[in-house]
Write a structure and sequence with these properties.
alpha+beta, two-stranded antiparallel sheet, 10 helices, globular
Amino acid sequence: GQTQYDLVDFAHYSDIFYSFKQNSKNPGSTEAIFQTPMYDWWMGSGWSLGPQFVPSILANETNGVVFCPTANYVNYYGMANGLPLKDPDSGFDEEYPWRDRDPRFYTDITYDGLQVIENTAKFTSEQKEKEIQYANLYTGGNYRDIKNESRTGYLLHKYTPLVVNGFDEGLRDYGDALTIQVSWMRLSDIYLMYAESVANGYGSPTSVVNGYSLTALDAVNKIRNRAGVEGVADKYAGSLDGFMSELRRERAVELAYEGHRFNDLRRWLLLTESPYTIKTSQEFDRVELDKKDPTQSRVANFREEVIVTRNFSEKHYWMPLKVSDVNIYPELYQNPGW
């Protein structure tokens, strides 16, 4: 039947995650189902959540905490043709790595060469010389200071419009009323949970539940189509294993940085498995910057380097219980490994 919930059209995709110059309007639009109680505007503002998405060079001040997507995670954002980067038919080109990507790559990820500052009037002569209006995220670029900028070669703007910086609109501007909201559950998550449960419960990506016409494959493609991405390719849709590999990637992209990934990896029993334990940076040299269309910029020596390997073991599928609780009586044991 008809409900008040509906997928937000992609032209208004950011309405799910933030509002800006809208009198502190709570984000979420028609897609949010469960959200954190918003006690006041400050919680999701440029004074609270906002600064972690704006590096020091963009904020024109030292922030101390910067959110940098890892390269291994950004790799989940495949191509607009629906194929993963490593698929031989995807068309991904390491010389032009920002070209023809999943449109959500461009709504979420700040990549090398993207113009992130419009107003250069406030620039010092040094800032003008270094052209910091462009995200200089290549290896050795001035956006790659490990302490204050990006250590991975990427930044995130899923929760903040690019104009929120220390030169354009300003990060800490009450009048602009930047308001960020990360929903606990939203409609696209429901479609993807439906797809996962139906495919595994009935054994096929083309399975349906009695009383419904939507197949597991249809549900994933509904989310992809909203973003302008082609559906799951036949080569992956023909088996449960192939479909699940694409569904896991779809959850990574659609629900990126919304707090689902750790629990997803636990549910799939992949938390302890390589390559999920490895976090990487994107290293490359900038060859040619296309300032008008940075998706067409050319790079060289495109490679990944390991930043850290998580030493997870079986015990990390469970949380430790408080020692004071497990000592209440002998039959209450601590979780395995803790």
